[in-house]
Amino acid sequence: MASSKSLNMRVSVLLLLFIFCGFAAAAFSTKKRKTIEEINKINENGPYIGLITVYAPEETAFFATGAFQSDPKHPFVDLAGRRFRVGKVNNKKVIYVRCGIGLVNAAAATQNMVDMFEISGIIHFGIAGNANSSMSIGDVTIPTQFVDTGLWDWLNPNGTVDSSDFGKLDIGNYNVPRGDGQNLLGHVGYSTEQFYSESGDPNTPQRVIWLNTTSQWLNLAANLKGIRLERCVNSSFCLSEEPKLVVGLKGATANTFIDNAAYREFLFQTFHVSSLDMESSAIVMTTLSNGYPVLVIRGLSDLAGAQKGDNPIQIFGPLAATNTATVVIEFLKTLPNHQHALL
Prior knowledge:
Radius of gyration: 24 Å
Signal peptide: 1-26
Shape: globular
InterPro entries: Nucleoside_phosphorylase_d (IPR000845), Nucleoside_phosphorylase_sf (IPR035994)
Strand content: 25-35%
Mean pLDDT: 91
Protein name: Nucleoside phosphorylase domain-containing protein
Low-confidence stretches: none
Oligomer: single chain
Pfam family, one: PNP_UDP_1
Order of helices and strands: HEHEEEEHEEEEEEEEEHEEEEHEHEH
Number of helices: 7
Domain Nucleoside phosphorylase: 57-333
């Protein structure tokens, strides 16, 4: 009898679980259906320019400009844990999202953007480390190309770097005294990206080193040189020089926050990159793979380890984010209404 009661109790619990799961699935399905319906209504007013930034201080600086005007009927939609905000900047229709730090977050948010919304291109913006001694904190860079410096072949000291790798880091060269003895960390070879594209054959990626931003948008951005950027963190603390906008340099991306002078110098000397960040190459590659134009705007917030003492990103990050937002807003002004035809 005890055994029968135990079985009945287990069956009852299972039935309750099935009923609960059924209700939960129905509720989830209803929520998903409402989200899709909302997105369809938003898309009726498209196309939009997608705006993607990374983390809270960049978002705060962007909205603090007051340039973003929220759509009165459909101000936002929540999708895959992110809030996509709908509105206008300088009379250009935009959808804004904060992707989160790192390559995976950047690629996921970008793919969500191009899959779900009627867009005509993407502008990615945020702050970055500075690897170029001719640039200064507070400057803004709009690179022509990005390289992913996080795809490594990490080898033993006696290992041979693959001939297809486009860069090599011999860790033993950084022993102190220089070159003294063998470093067991060996060598790092920098691997190429596998670039999948709608214009290519399915499952046949190209091997690429550099990912190019859209030349037509770069040409428009070049007209912004000389734009006035903020020099002061506050009323009593200002940079020694006026920040500038530079169009046409190169940037590097990896899932690593660079705060090391030796590695900063290695990246600059090896790849001739000026900005270092953790998202741009993923957003550029995902956007281009789907056949849309893309531009990246990054404000320099720190020296990536070349400073004396602690990294100054906490001090200058908000200033760099403000200058970046200024350039984004001015670029949107110059973008013609037929922007979707610029790729």
